[in-house]
Amino acid sequence: MYKYIQIFLVALKLGCISFGGPTAHLGYFYDEYVKKRKWLNEKEYSDLVALCQFLPGPASSQVGIGIGTIRGGLVGGILSFLAFTMPSVVILIIFAVVMNGTDMSTSWIQGLKLVAVAVVAQAILGMSKKLTNTKSKILLALFVLAITLLVHHILIQIVALTLTGLYGLIFLRKSDHPATYSKQIRIPKLFGVISISLYFALLIILPIFRTIFQNVWIIMFDSFYRAGALVFGGGHVVLPLLEKEFVPAGLISKDDFIAGYAAAQGVPGPLFTFASYIGTNIEGIVGGVVATIAIFLPAFLLLFGILPFWEDIKSNKYIDGFLTGISAGVVGILIAAFYSPIWISTIKGELDFVLASVMFVLLMHFKWPSWSIVLIGIAIGVILY
Description:
Elements: H1 2-17, H2 22-36, H3 42-54, H4 59-98, H5 107-131, H6 135-150, H7 156-172, H8 189-213, H9 216-230, H10 235-246, H11 254-265, H12 274-306, H13 310-314, H14 317-343, H15 350-364, H16 370-384
């Protein structure tokens, strides 16, 4: 029981302080779960990140679910998700209920963006030491960095990671492939098969039900489920997709959508919880809860479908080489995301650069905890911006 309480409380803390979007979340996770608590080693964390980057859906949330599952089985994965997601869900549902058309004060958001710069920079440096420790891996990261920033397509990350994975499969696999220490994932393989089957079944059945019944609840569930099941690239990609699903249909006004978009950028936790705001705006608090379940359900089904077979997959030397290539590519994705949108939307002048540098030094070299840097960021935003 203590283990489950610990999983919940640690994830809840991260859910309250993890500002800055998916890339920053991976930085917070790395700092908390790998460096501080050592629930995973570097290899296990990088493999999990590589897997979740390759899957559709909210990558950072899936990493959190995976860590909870590795630590505490199926219950641990669910508790980790609930705790990490709950703060932003509650905030956005309340905002949708009480919103009266007035503009939000966003002065403090700039301070939190500066925190994200420091956190992501720390994560990139920490992960790159392990994942890009040879010239070939550095070139793979550079390739993904370049193609991600220069080619603007929704699937470009998947294409880039596939290419780096194929390179790793051919050139980076180990001929002897020694056994590696790994933690047992306590999910039955039958449960994994059922999860994967249900993932695809809902993609087929929900649109049919939507056409037949024309019910607002089925329409909502189908739209949010498809958004969570088919989107690559994380929360920033799902926002315009949701706009196309709900604004033209008249289920939410453009002004309300934009207000919620602003709120979603300013709360901690996953951007996918924007669905909580939209669902509440359409059908009240129950609608917000249903929307949240629908958009995150694919992430659970995919991850719980794959994790029972994960150790068998990783023990194959070819898959290990594939994952090694992808892990190097993930560093390139993190650097690309560090530049856009984090850096270009945050560092507007010398003051921004100085403040972000100070927080980075406090985090990296003075070992200040992440939550203290978040409080500093909020204070800086309120006082200086």
